[in-house]
C-alpha cells in the first residue's frame, strides 16, 4: 500500500491537471500518478505523471477502468482533477486506512460541493463513518476490492452519474463496507469542474440503475441526503 499504490485522475483541462498534481505532490505523495487523458496532455507541460490515452466520447466509468487496468493489482486512489489535497500525507493515509479494515471503498472528507452530507467535512469531525454510498471525488479502492467486485460498469456511458453509486451497491453485496474518513480532507473546487453533470446523462443512468437494482433502490438513492 502507500508508495505501491497508484492515483488515477481523468482530465480534460491542462490547468486542472497541473493544479491537481501540484497539490498531490505537495501533500507528500510519492506514488505513481496516472492521468487518463481526455485533452489535458496538450498544454500540461512536463508533469511528473504517467499519461494514459482516454477514449472519446468521454465516459467516466470507461476511462477510470483504463486506469484501473493499468494499475494491475495495486491499491488505487481515484480522484477528480478539480480536487486539491488539503491534509499533509493525505493520500498515503487514505490508502493505509482503506487497507487496514474491511473497507471496500474509503472516501476522503470533502470541503466544497458533494452530494452526500456525511462526506462533507465539518470542523470538529474525527474518525470515520460507515455509509451506504460515496461520491468518487477522492476515494481509495484496495486491490482486494477490485479483485472481488471488478471494474466500474461501463453501461453508465455518456458522462457520469450513478456509476459510483452502482459500485457502492456492488461493494455492499460483496460483504464489504463503504466509508468516509475525516482524517483526510480534500477540497473540491467547484469552478474548476472539467465535466458537466448533464441532466440527460443522469436520466439515462437512473434508468440503467433501476434496471439493475429495482425501483425501490433507485427511490432510496434519489431521496438520500
Main traits of this protein?
nine-stranded mixed beta sheet; 225 residues; 34% helix; alpha/beta; Spore Coat Polysaccharide Biosynthesis Protein SpsA, Chain A
Plain-language structure description:
With 225 residues, the protein is an alpha/beta fold. The chain has a single domain (2-222), classed as Spore Coat Polysaccharide Biosynthesis Protein SpsA, Chain A. 34% of the residues lie in helices and 23% in strands. Strands 1, 2, 3, 4, 5, 6, 7, 8 and 9 form a 9-stranded mixed sheet that branches. Helix 1 links the parallel strand 1 and strand 2. The model has no long low-confidence stretch (mean pLDDT 93).
Q: Remind me, CATH topology?
A: Spore Coat Polysaccharide Biosynthesis Protein SpsA, Chain A
CATH homolog superfamily = Spore Coat Polysaccharide Biosynthesis Protein SpsA, Chain A
Helix content: 25-40%
The count of strands amounts to 9
**Strand portion, in percent?**
15-25%
Choose one word for the global shape. globular
- Enumerate the spans where pLDDT stays under 50 for 5 or more consecutive residues: none
Number of domains: 1
Annotation field: number of helices: 7
Structural class: alpha/beta
Identify the CATH architecture.
Alpha-Beta Complex
Short overview:
The protein is of the alpha/beta class. 34% of the residues lie in helices and 23% in strands. α6 (199-213) crosses α7.
Strand and helix layout:
Blueprint: E1 6-11, H1 14-26, E2 32-37, E3 50-53, H2 60-71, E4 76-79, E5 83-85, H3 90-100, E6 103-111, E7 128-131, E8 138-141, H4 143-149, H5 163-173, E9 177-188, H6 199-213, H7 215-222
Helix pairs in contact: 6-7
Amino acid at each position: 500500500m502507500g508508495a505501491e499504490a497508484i492515483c488515477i485522475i481523468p482530465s480534460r483541462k491542462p490547468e486542472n491537471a497541473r493544479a491537481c498534481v501540484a497539490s498531490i505532490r505537495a501533500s507528500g505523495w510519492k506514488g505513481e500518478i496516472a492521468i487518463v487523458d481526455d485533452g489535458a496532455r496538450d498544454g500540461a507541460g512536463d508533469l511528473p505523471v504517467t499519461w494514459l490515452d482516454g477514449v472519446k466520447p468521454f465516459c467516466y466509468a470507461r476511462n477510470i477502468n483504463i486506469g484501473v487496468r493499468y494499475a494491475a493489482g495495486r491499491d488505487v486512489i481515484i480522484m477528480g482533477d478539480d480536487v486539491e489535497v488539503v491534509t499533509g500525507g493525505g493520500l498515503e493515509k487514505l490508502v493505509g486506512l482503506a487497507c487496514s479494515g474491511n473497507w471496500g471503498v474509503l472516501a476522503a472528507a470533502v470541503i466544497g460541493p458533494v452530494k452526500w452530507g456525511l462526506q462533507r467535512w465539518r470542523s470538529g469531525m474525527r474518525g470515520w463513518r460507515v455509509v451506504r454510498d460515496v461520491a468518487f471525488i477522492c476515494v481509495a479502492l484496495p486491490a482486494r476490492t477490485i479483485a472481488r467486485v471488478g471494474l466500474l460498469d461501463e453501461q453508465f456511458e455518456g458522462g457520469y452519474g450513478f456509476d459510483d453509486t452502482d459500485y457502492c451497491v456492488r461493494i455492499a453485496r460483496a460483504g464489504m463496507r463503504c466509508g468516509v474518513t475525516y482524517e483526510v480532507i480534500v477540497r473540491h473546487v467547484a469552478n474548476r469542474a472539467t465535466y458537466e453533470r448533464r441532466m440527460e446523462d443522469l436520466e439515462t443512468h437512473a434508468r440503467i440503475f433501476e434496471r439493475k437494482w429495482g425501483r425501490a433502490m433507485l427511490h432510496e438513492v434519489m431521496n438520500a441526503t
